[in-house]
Amino acid sequence: MAIIERPSDTVALAPSGAPAVATPGTSYGVFRRPVHTTGWKSWLFTIDHKKLGIMYGITSMVFFIIGGVEALLIRLQLAGPNGTVLNADQYNQMFTMHATTMVFLFVMPMAAAFANYMVPLQIGARDVAFPRINAFGYWAYLFGGLLLNSAWFLGGAADGGWFMYAPNSSVVFSPTNGVDFWGLGLQITGIASLTGAINLIVTVINMRAPGMSLMKMPIFTWMVMVVQFLLLFAMPVITVALFMLMFQRSFDATFFSVEAGADPLLWQHLFWIFGHPEVYIIVLPSFGIVSEILPVFSKKPLFGYPLIVFSGAAIGLVGWGVWAHHMFASGLGPISVAVFSVATMAIAIPTGVKIVNWTLTMWGGKIAFTVPMLYAVGVIVQFTIGGLSGVTHSVAPSDTQQTDTYYIVAHFHYVIFGGAVLGLFGGLYYWWPKIFGKMLNERLGKWNFWLTIVGMNLTFGPMHVIGIQGQPRRMYVWTENRAGEGFFNLGFWNLMATVGSFVLSLGVLLFLINIYVSHRKGTQPAPLDPWDARSLEWITSSPPKEHNFDRLPTVGHLDEFFHRKYEDRGEGERHDYHQVATAEEILAGEEANGDKHIHLPSPSYWPILLAFSLPVMGYGVIYNLYLLAGGALLALVSMYGWGMEPHTAPSDDYDPPTGTELEVAAHG
Hints:
Blueprint: E1 3-5, E2 10-13, E3 19-20, H1 40-44, H2 49-78, H3 88-122, H4 131-149, H5 178-206, H6 219-251, H7 265-298, H8 305-318, H9 334-346, H10 348-362, H11 371-391, H12 396-402, H13 406-436, H14 442-468, H15 490-518, H16 560-565, E4 566-568, E5 577-579, H17 583-592, H18 606-623, H19 625-644, H20 659-666
Antiparallel strand pairs: 1-2, 2-3, 4-5
Helix pairs in contact: 2-3, 2-4, 2-15, 3-4, 3-5, 3-7, 3-13, 4-5, 4-18, 5-6, 5-18, 6-7, 6-8, 7-8, 7-10, 7-11, 7-13, 8-10, 10-11, 11-13, 11-14, 13-14, 14-15, 18-19
């Protein structure tokens, strides 16, 4: 009995050649996702990790554009002295929402897009452990982001900075509902992150292909798993802080009120205990992508695979001990400052290990400077710049001087944009043919890369200079009498930063144009293995089938796909690889020996209904407690319906078995 693929579903063939079937209780046939396989309903109710990954990616790109527009308005305001593009209140809202959007609604969800799509493929699984929870996570992210941004149309957005320090976040200093939208929106997106973390951890631990030990997993999967553990322990901390903020603003609690004997620094500690692991939640997926790209385009195995794995884990561990370097100016005391200074220096070690290993992976390789490779090299260079400026903040006197200047803005943009965003774009170019079966245009891609690199450095490089000159951040104007002279002229460097932001935006626009050009009518399908890749996700079709693999692969090596294509005929420590199979031949072999029983749970509308109840409750907290009760009732009904939903498809979703098959089953 062999498995075949049809446009609408997956079925099995009986020995006679007629479609075979399965009914509950029998051991024959292929279970399939039977309803809404095409059209908009197939996306609305999907629980397929690949579709959800694409939805995460598209949604996060929309928020990226929104955050980019906010950044352009900020730079236009600061292009010259005494800017009039935005007033003070609008500027505060703009830089608060820009940072919030980029961190929580773009970088983290785009990493989740890759994790959702690629991790099951890289470990040889057919889906994540909890597909419906996976769907709930996406919709919670979307509804949380919409709730957060709806503040723009309902009286004004949050204006206390993305860090929302007390007491500035109190009703006294921020009387509109913007901060309430901010806190409730982040709580909902935090639920999405937390459920996703649990889901991916269980998936990686329990659903790896036969033979795939932890030390045979691709580095991207390793880094994703480290990130999920960070999320698992970091999200509850910020959730507690956000609940305290909500109760203080909405129900007159006094958690951060000095007049009630509380300490506003409590908020800072809670926020940064989450906030610094958050930095590595942002950059580690990008590190994993770089570690996938470099060996492929250097034609070499990744140098020091175990060191890359353990350095990623060490970054995740040590990242919990550095949060207070964000608070050196708050008067922590010399002992605390010394401890966190040493920890900040220490975390540079595992990061440096990665950079060395990446460099040695390229050393002596046959490097092909494709667009993904350019982005990977760009991450190494730009993140190193950000890391070097970061180490200077471990020196408390230097940090205290710089902490409220644009020097810090330059540092964290080199880390977040140079370390995370460039890596994510590299991943888009690298995995695009796998996800969509089309190649992005290389020429446009290289223009995209170089405009992005030039724009990034032209935008954030000058901020080092104006920061050292003392230009404060979070100020909506700077005055001409502080402009400075010569090389240190604030007017020149602010103007250059603004010009750079538009160059950077042009680079992003070229990426969108590349998508359009590459997917226009008549574009040829991508080759099955366009990069001569190494890992398991390339062993299946492009795009992958709904069930991912016709046969669950058995893994015998790190870089399993590479070792199926090439045979080592060298002697001793000398390697001499010769190609023995093409990707097409390997896929044909997998299809010819497909598994007889494939179970995929059916689509469901309960996850979207449960997720929708969350913003309803959020609006209820802000406007009307009856609405809160209505949202809670919808949540209870959704959870009940979800809990009562059959774990297998309804009986009419199966093809009933033939008499011959029943006879065979009865006699073994």
